[in-house]
Amino acid sequence: MRFAFHTMRKFVTIFSLFKSKNFSVSLIPNSPRCSNQLHPNFRNLTQICDLSLSPLSSHRFVSTTAENPSTLNRNVHQDQGIDFPGGTVELIPEMKFISESVKERIPCYRVLDDNGQAIMGHNFVQVSEEVAVKMYTDMVTLRSMDTIFYEAQRQGRISFYVTAIGEEAINVASAAALSMDDVVFPQYREAGVLLWRGFTLQEFANQLFSNKYDNGKGRQMPAHYGSNKHNYFTIASTIATQIPHAVGAAYSLKMDKKDACAVTYFGDGGSSEGDFHAALNFAAVTEAPVIFICRNNGWAISTPISDQFRSDGVVVKGQSYGVRSIRVDGNDALAIYSAVQTARQMAITEERPILIEALTYRVGHHSTSDDSTKYRPANEIEWWRVARDPVARFRKWLENNGWWNDRAESELINNLRQQVIDIMLILESILIHHSV
Ligand SMILES: Cc1ncc(C[n+]2csc(CCOP(=O)(O)OP(=O)(O)O)c2C)c(N)n1
Ligand SMILES: [Mg+2]
């Protein structure tokens, strides 16, 4: 823990220096999210959290009387409670252990059903046609890019690749809900966030082919993107190390009074690392404006979540550390968009961390180094691929609004395939040219 705290403190300093020197925190103007409006249902943020549960709702446990041992006895109310930092703790005669499990699981926030219809009683943040269409086209672009680059690895053109198939909504809808000023600390399955921010297919290809135009000058493993210009920290394979870094950055943004937060993505496997727990705790006590987005896709390579933790998923861990949290349907782009935009507002205006657990499924193999049919049934993969597809679900909603149709779809697909193939052909011709 002490080591992690040092790491975070050091990172606050490094991050501040980084900003002052070459780190572009200023933003690409005219970000599409500017047109977004908070749904009237969400105007009063306190309406959407159960804040009656104080003292957890307050930033800090305020009582200090128990810190002075000489005053302790005087503050014990024999039959009622003991004053202890954090408020009065009830005294009871029964020996009662807290149960290791809850009667009911934490519910999951969802706006669209599997057919793309808004469910009864839904409340969500309004999204304009322009933003919704860009969300959809970026999700399709991400999927096309994944399919083509995955095949390119299989053909020996690149050495490694990771897809986000099945997790396009978490990638793109969360990015759409953020501002370009927000600093992103990714794991490795969030290329869609970078795509949303304007990283081009050519730039992805440069990194994957490890050429001199790559921001990392070809020194990183393929699929380990990073871009100062897009406020997107370079991916590190070491699982969960980015989570405390995000807290340090968030603390720095708060000290500088920026209208921005830090956002970190990680998988269920990331939440099984010590760094996740240290980061949540530090974020809570430093009141850092950071959003933790956990993509709970059921698997950490071949390890299922049942072998990782016995809690009700990841969301419940937030409350243990004093972090406001929500569980969201990760395959519902509108639910993700609404939750992230609302979380962002809370994080910045109230100076607090927020944890979002997005329930989803990794439809693809873990990476090109994996064959997931060796450890999970093919029909499970197929069910998530077809019945719970986040891209098809969002498309139905767009079509119901009259914002998308078959013609627009085929134009987009043809255009994308051609773009990626053209880029790869150019890159390969450069490689051949250099090797002769
Ligand atoms: C510290 C560390 N331990 C182990 C690994 C090996 N490893 C790479 S990815 C991975 C699984 C991570 O799973 P999760 O966080 O759920 O992300 P997902 O791949 O499901 O998106 C593991 C164990 C690593 N890269 N770093
Ligand atoms: Mg996982």
Automatic annotation (TrEMBL):
* GO MF entry, a single one: branched-chain 2-oxo acid dehydrogenase activity
What are its cofactors? Answer: thiamine diphosphate
Q: Describe, as the record does, how this protein assembles with itself and its partners.
A: Heterotetramer of alpha and beta chains.
Q: Which Pfam families match?
A: E1_dh
Q: What class of enzyme is it?
A: oxidoreductase
Give any Gene Ontology cellular component.
mitochondrial matrix
What PANTHER family does the record tag this protein with?
Answer: 2-OXOISOVALERATE DEHYDROGENASE SUBUNIT ALPHA 2, MITOCHONDRIAL, 2-OXOISOVALERATE DEHYDROGENASE SUBUNIT ALPHA, MITOCHONDRIAL
Give the catalytic activity: N(6)-[(R)-lipoyl]-L-lysyl-[protein] + 3-methyl-2-oxobutanoate + H(+) = N(6)-[(R)-S(8)-2-methylpropanoyldihydrolipoyl]-L-lysyl-[protein] + CO2
Q: Which SUPFAM superfamilies does the entry link to?
A: Thiamin diphosphate-binding fold (THDP-binding) (SSF52518)
Its protein name is 3-methyl-2-oxobutanoate dehydrogenase (2-methylpropanoyl-transferring)
Q: Which GO biological process annotations does it have?
A: branched-chain amino acid catabolic process
Entry annotated with the keyword Aminoacyl-tRNA synthetase: no
Q: Where is the Dehydrogenase E1 component domain?
A: 138-423
Q: Enumerate the subcellular locations listed in this protein's record, separating them with semicolons.
A: Mitochondrion matrix
* E.C. number: 1.2.4.4
**What domain of life is recorded for the organism?**
Eukaryota
Give the family this protein belongs to, as stated in its UniProt record: Belongs to the BCKDHA family.
State the UniProt keywords alphabetically.
Answer: Metal-binding, Mitochondrion, Oxidoreductase, Potassium, Transit peptide
